[in-house]
User: What shape does this take?
Amino acid sequence: MDKAAVAVAAAMILNLFIKILYIDKNHFEDML
Assistant: This one.
């Protein structure tokens, strides 16, 4: 597998994960 493709995929997954964590921290009270 191409190293560039792996790097892009990892960056996208990390970005998504960080966004989910960030939203959870800020809107946790709203979800309860």
